[in-house]
Design a protein that fits this description.
heterodimer, A: alpha+beta, Immunoglobulin-like, 2 domains, six-stranded mixed beta sheet, five-stranded mixed beta sheet, elongated, B: about 110 residues, mainly alpha, about 80% helix
Amino acid sequence: MTQSTAKQWSTEKLLLAVGIAAIAAGAAVGVSVGYAVHYEAPTTRAFYLFNNSLPFDQHTWGIPHDTFSPDRITVNKGDKVVIYYRNIEDTTEAHTFTMDAPYTFDAVVHAGQNESFPIASTLHSASNVVVQVNQTATITFTATWAGVFRFYCAYHQPTMTGYLVVLG
Amino acid sequence: MLRWSAVGLLFVVGLIDIYYGNFYAGFFENLWYMMGSIYIFTGAVIASNFEPRFAQPAVFGYAIFLFVLWATTAIGTGAGLDTVAYVDKAIEALLVVNMALLVRNSRRPSLLP
């Protein structure tokens, strides 16, 4: 638009034209994004996590028979994650829930099979919590970083390993 | 006066956009960074009074564009429906009004000989 043309437009006409063009463009892009993107607002996601034993002799095979069940936790970036981790061993074996950097978590360990039992210990910004037999740990953190992150039992490697999948 | 209030609003809304991209991550945070940076850049352009006949209507249109973009995206996806976004968009609405008045003032014929 030349300057002489611009001068011919009244201010009101100019503002109206710019406004209508901006509304049309904004609506077109916004509606397109609405169609293209499936978004879920961050929310709290709770998981129950157990130790599991596969039916083989770990001494014969040379690896621990312990695993996590489930071994995949999938959340959206920004979600608050709550994991209720129960050590359901029928022996006196302890397990840990350990996370690789950059993730840390808060944990409350209860001296019993659920959260109604007395608190045995509390951890803040920890990367490792030990859960004894018949104990329950409530682990909480926010899924701040997208990607795939390992969690594992430090006592039973390499088999007792899971992955936190954070969709970005 | 209208020019400096516009500059203030542009900087505030730009900083909020960048803050939002950083702390309310999870949805197109890079887009929020870009929108905020453009607001801060346009704040500097309006402050320097560079090509006001073009720059002022362009900023007016940009603010309307982003407001409508947010509204339609929020309705379509549920994203950006939180307090920080509401504050950001309320300031953006003020900015639209401020820019409209500024454009009108700037294009008013000078009474000076």
